[in-house]
Amino acid sequence: MAIPRSARISLRFIALVIGPLPMISGCADRVTPVELNFSVRYGDNAISCTEAVAGLKLTDLRFFVYDLKLVDQAGRSRAVELLADGLWQDGKIALLDFEDGQGDCINGSAASNRSIRGVVTADNVGSPFHGISFTVGVPPDSNHRDPMTAKAPLNYTAMHWHWLTGYKFMRVGINSESDRFWMHLGSSHCDGSISDEIECRSSNRIAVALGDFDPSRDRIVIDLEPLVTAANLADGIGSDCSSGPDEPACAAAFAALGLPYGLTAEAASQRVFRIEPAP
Fold this sequence. Notes:
It contains 3 helices and 16 strands. It is mostly beta strands. A hairpin with a 4-residue loop joins strand 3 (57-72) and strand 4.
């Protein structure tokens, strides 16, 4: 019996729809959970609020991170979607906190956070990642919120200055028995009003890109030594940098972070973040 023309058209349509499905399934990406672990060092040695390196101890280390991407085997950047936990991270911003309120971190709090958790799409083959990139700071569209009404992690008032400069992207401090250095990093040269729009000519967000990184075996190290190489921590005169103009301690610290210091300066390569195998 001959197949009616309308039925032949339907069969061809079904074949076109069903035929490619196995190929599509074979090329599909999978959603993979990832945990990105961080640690703090002074050179090659661990440093903390209670653990000294060459007579130096941590007094503070907190910073925001966003725009995380992992690089897959084909060299493509894969965005990491952060898992909101109501405390340390929302869908796009995370707060890392290495002080625990102990020892020399008298201005901190007991809670700390040394990892970022999220999911990423990846090719369904083996161990897919070999690099990472992220930005230290707060996105421009979130930088001038009221921390009293913002949701976590932007509700920490210790990480906020005032409306024009917005959030402190990073707080870091280190001291000896008789000296100290600290830095509060944020946008500067800002103009505007909260009711209209605020623009900052010096963004001061740190772009970090690191190769040879696999989240299943490696962690990201924050090395504080390059930040204080130009500070004399034995002269009894404290040094500080609050990201403003005419602060001598800022120039070397900004250079270590890969940031230009001043409106006409050029950025260098950052020397603070690196990769090391997890223990």
